Structure formats: C-alpha cells, structure tokens
Amino acid sequence: MSAINDELTVEPDSRFPSGPWTGYFLQPVLPGRHRMELHLTFLAGTMRGEGRDWVGPFIVTGRYETTTGKCWWTKRYIGKHDVAYQGFNEGRGIWGRWEIDPVTWHGGFHIWPCAMDDPSNDRLAESIEEPVEAGEPVLV
C-alpha cells in the first residue's frame, strides 16, 4: 500500500485512534462497572468496530466529529437488541450515556484506547528522589 493510501486509513486526530479500546458501562439493574472490550476504526467521521461484554458479542456503527469531540453510535448485539450511545471525547477517552429505553434502560459509559491508562481512576502520583548515603569515595 502506498503512503498516500496509508494516510487515508488513519484518523489524524489523536483522540480517535483506531485499534483496541476498553472501558465499561453502568447499568441500573446490576450495580457496578460492566467491562467491555472493543476494536474500533475511526476514519473521516465514521466509526466502525466490534466488541464483547457480558451480554455478548456486538458490532459498532456510528459517527464522530473532530471539531466538537461528539460521538454517536449503535451497539448491535449479535442476534439480540441494539443500544444507542452518545458521548464526548475531550482527550481522556469517550464518555457519555447509553440507552435502550430512555425511561428504564439507560446509564453511563466510559471507553478509552487500550494504550491509555484507565482515565477514570483519578490517582495522585508523586515522585521523590531517594536520598543517597554518603560513602567512601571511589577512585576512578
């Protein structure tokens, strides 16, 4: 494949890297984070992919905007139901709301590229220099 064709297959916006993604959705009936694994392709405003969670395997089809960071897609479980997702990407993955039924079956979600640490775990990190004990001088 030529370099020109390679450039056409990759979204230049770093917020939308194609490849493996991970994350979770929140569900009202079963509390807690429900993990999902996805493989997504972003190209020219179109989002496609596939994945798996405890409900089963699914296909993803949707769109995204690099100007606003907004995303919309359908998660279609193979042989089951569809789930509508709407979210936003500000550089820490995509987060937002999913729904099957806006009154009863809805919740939050957060997904991010696997190459990124879990951005939903806000951890404080600090580094210090360990003191070095003075020892015998070393002759070189």
SSE inventory with pairings:
Elements: H1 3-8, E1 19-26, E2 33-43, E3 46-53, E4 56-64, E5 70-77, E6 82-89, E7 94-101, E8 105-113
List the keywords.
disordered N terminus, mainly beta, 140 residues, eight-stranded antiparallel β-barrel
Structure description:
This protein has one helix spanning 3-8, and strands spanning 19-26, 33-43, 46-53, 56-64, 70-77, 82-89, 94-101, 105-113. It has 140 residues and is mostly beta strands. The chain has a single domain (3-113), classed as Quinohemoprotein amine dehydrogenase alpha subunit, domain 2 (Lipocalin), CATH 2.40.128. The longest helix is centred in the first third of the chain and has 6 residues, at 3-8. The model is unreliable at 1-7 and 123-132 (pLDDT under 50).
| CATH fold annotation | Lipocalin
Radius of gyration: 21 Å
Assigned CATH class: Mainly Beta
Distance between the termini: 55 Å
How would you briefly describe this protein structure?
This protein has one helix spanning 3-8; strands at 19-26, 33-43, 46-53, 56-64, 70-77, 82-89, 94-101, 105-113.
